[in-house]
Design brief:
Order of helices and strands: EEEHHHHHEHHHHHHEHHE
Pathway: Porphyrin-containing compound metabolism; chlorophyll biosynthesis (light-independent)
Number of helices: 13
Pfam family, one: Rubrerythrin
Distance between the termini: 39 Å
Helix content: 55-70%
Organism: Limnospira platensis NIES-46
Family: Belongs to the AcsF family.
Strand order of the largest sheet: 1-2
Largest sheet: 2 strands, antiparallel
Protein name: Magnesium-protoporphyrin IX monomethyl ester [oxidative] cyclase
Length: about 350
């Protein structure tokens, strides 16, 4: 625990440039995909909706939104100790996630330009939004005398390969859960301005609409490929990605409950609200959603939170690597068992209405 009376120190590549957080199963990932398969994709089944969303992207509602004002021009030394540490972690994780989206969308735009110009422009304009978000977050880090070398991240991070259909499932959910995360924080701080410790939260209302529009695009892409929603395999994949996105957020946020406490939120209650809203939103396109109200759903996730605490303690110990592996193994098995049981919970069948979360 960081002494609350002292500023935490962060490892730096060079003065003022933070060493990126260690990659783990829960850290934001960088993605690549099968670009040739994406080039061949037929979107005619839902091209009208995709073109309508493209028109929304072209309007660029937030082109003047991400401008720092005079409230940023002050010392932030009063944000100290553990609060400073977890807030810097929040900014870094958010910046890394937004930059990951920028890289993927930018490359998709470049690769699709000749054979699928409509999709290419959609991805180009989404990469514009993600670049703004990442840049705004990185500039916020500079208020704490830090920044991320995004060029270094581009070269040093491992890239996870996902087939296009998995990109659609995962990114649709990531964008929609991002909407609910941002809007819940914004509405809480609107009601409790005394908890707004930093001005970036004032930007979340418009910001989350970028996330929402991006999610609408991937909703439309899923509907353009009926096989991704209408057969038994699609139902299994929907369950998998719903659980993956919800569990990743829950484990991450409860591990960083101090950040949410600093802005007046209970991390567990906040995550439950976000999960319920995202699950409801997913029911507008997915054929099934998770039964998040089942008595064992959060019990099993809470068990994984405790197990992760034990895994972190082992990872931070001075034991040799091979000893750590055998110490961690039963905890990995325990988490795997919890996730398997969560996956096998009977889902809820829904009739998608294809509405838009607002």
């Amino acid at each position: 625990m960081v002494d609350s009376l002292k500023k935490p120190t962060f490892e730096e590549i060079r003065p003022g440039v933070k060493v990126p957080a260690k990659e783990t199963i829960l850290t934001p990932r960088f993605y690549t995909t099968d670009f040739e398969e994406m080039e061949k994709m037929d979107i005619s089944a839902n091209e009208e909706e995709i073109r309508a969303i493209l028109e929304e992207f072209r309007i660029d509602y937030n082109r003047h939104h991400f401008v720092r004002d005079e409230e940023f021009e002050q010392s932030w030394d009063h944000i100290d100790g553990e609060t400073r540490k977890v807030f810097v972690e929040f900014l870094e994780r958010s910046c890394t996630a937004e930059f990951s989206g920028f890289l993927l969308y930018k490359e998709l735009s470049r690769r699709l330009k000749e054979k699928s110009p409509v999709l290419a422009e959609c991805f180009l304009l989404m990469s514009r939004d993600e670049a703004r978000h990442a840049g705004f977050l990185n500039k916020a880090l500079s208020d704490f005398n830090l920044s991320l070398d995004l060029g270094f991240l581009t070269k040093s991070r491992k890239y996870t390969f996902f087939k296009p259909k998995f990109i659609f499932y995962a990114t649709y959910l990531s964008e929609k859960i991002g909407y609910w995360r941002y809007i819940k924080i914004y509405r809480h701080l609107e009601a409790h301005p005394e908890d707004r410790i930093y001005p970036i939260f004032r930007f979340f209302e418009n910001w989350c609409q970028d996330e929402n529009r991006h999610g609408d695009f991937f909703d439309a892409m899923l509907k353009s490929q009926p096989s991704l929603l209408n057969d038994w395999k699609a139902r299994l994949w929907c369950r998998f990605f719903l659980l993956s996105v919800f569990a990743t957020m829950y484990l991450n946020d409860l591990q960083r409950a101090d950040f949410y406490a600093a802005i007046g939120l209970n991390a567990r209650d906040y995550d439950i609200e976000v999960i319920e809203k995202t699950n409801e939103t997913a029911g507008r396109v997915f054929p099934i959603v998770l039964n998040v109200n089942h008595p064992s759903f959060y019990q099993r996730l809470d068990h994984c939170v405790k197990t992760n605490e034990k895994l972190s303690a082992i990872a931070n110990s001075n034991a040799p690597g091979f000893v750590k592996f055998f110490q961690k193994l039963p905890h990995y098995i325990s988490n795997g068992w919890q996730f398997l049981n969560l996956y096998l919970l009977k889902p809820i069948n829904v009739e998608p209405t294809h509405g838009v979360a607002r």
